[in-house]
Amino acid sequence: MKPSLITPHPISEGCLGDCSYCIVKIARGKLISYPREKIVNKAKDLIDKGAKCLFITAQDTACYGFDIGDNLANLLNDLSQIEGEFIMRVGMMHAKNAQLILDELIEVYKNEKVGKFLHLPLQSGDDEILKKMKRGYTVDEFKDIVNEFRRKVKNLCFTTDIIVGFPGETEEQFQNTLEVLKELKPDYIHGAKYSQRKGTEAAKMKQVDTKIRKRRSEILDKLRRELSYLNNKKYIGKTMRVLVLDKGKGYTDNFKVVKFEGGEVGEFRKIKITDAKTFGLRGKLISN
Prior knowledge:
This protein is of the alpha/beta class. It has 2 domains: 6-233, pyruvate-formate lyase- activating enzyme (Alpha-Beta Horseshoe), CATH 3.80.30; 239-285, CATH 2.40.50.140. The protein is built from 9 helices and 13 strands. It has helices spanning 24-28, 36-48, 72-80, 95-98, 102-109, 127-133, 139-152, 171-184, 210-233; strands spanning 6-10, 12-13, 32-33, 53-57, 87-90, 117-119, 157-164, 188-193, 239-246, 249-252, 257-259, 268-277, 280-285. The strands form 4 sheets. It has a 5-stranded mixed beta barrel. It has a 3-stranded parallel beta sheet with strand order 1-4-5, with helices on one face. Helix 3 (72-80) packs parallel to helix 5. The two termini are 33 Å apart. The mean pLDDT is 95. Its EC number is 2.8.4.5. InterPro entries: Elp3/MiaA/NifB-like_rSAM, Methylthiotransferase, MiaB-like_arc_euk, rSAM, rSAM_horseshoe, rSAM_sf, TRAM_dom. Keywords: 4Fe-4S, Iron, Iron-sulfur, Metal-binding, S-adenosyl-L-methionine, Transferase, tRNA processing. Belongs to the methylthiotransferase family. CDKAL1 subfamily.
């Protein structure tokens, strides 16, 4: 069966996290990493059959291999050696695990086959809430990871996740989260109102009123739109390598969506960015 142009490529099941609000560990169980050789061989097969973009997926890609004496940087290095023109988007990483392999990870991100896309959930910009969430890192440790990536990886697209209205979150703690986001300026923020998951620790904690959660979610949504547009404007005038996905649409090599005229589906082309929208770019095809 022929794979699609963009193909998900799972590398593990389960995770090493113990987040107080999450049902995934209960549902999916402990970490089981697939052997590196099998992942690489499968990727070769997908690329040989026409895939141009592999979405490297897992509950937490950063802890890949920790159960089998391996790690994500080693895997990405091997995947990058596969012949052919393709690009990989590495899925969500847990900051506490990314921190353990940070230097190796940043080094492999410099390879042109690894998309300059970092999905690193913050969840809260307040240390007390992070502790209640059992995230395993502080706000400052999280900032250090993002800043180190940005310092060494050009045109990094940094995406994060935020939960508003976590049990016990005060107005001050919510404001702390907003301030951290204004400082870090993520390219994209996935915002979510906290919702109880039966069987989790957080479900037993004192809950924040649903109206407060809704109001905080609206405030976050306004900020995420502002920051996204601010980031996208920086690309105007730049020339980007783009994978043509559809008629008049493609992914840049840091996985921003860009619209343009021309190009054949499945080819990589140079696009000059001419305009920015809140959640995307517009550009002009540069002739070969």
